[in-house]
Amino acid sequence: MSAVEIVMEGPVSGDCLLSLQMSAGLNNFRPFEKQQQALAVICGFDAGRVYVARSEKEIVGYVTFHRPDEYSRWHRHPRVLELGGVEVSPGWRGRGVGSGLLLHIFNDDCWEDYIVISTEYFRHWDTAGTGLDIWGYRKMLDGFFGRAGFMPVSTNDPDILEHPANVLMARVGSGVGWDDVMDFEEIATGRI
Question: Taking Cα atoms as reference points, which of 155, 128, 123, 125 lies closest to residue 139?
Answer without folding.
Answer: 125
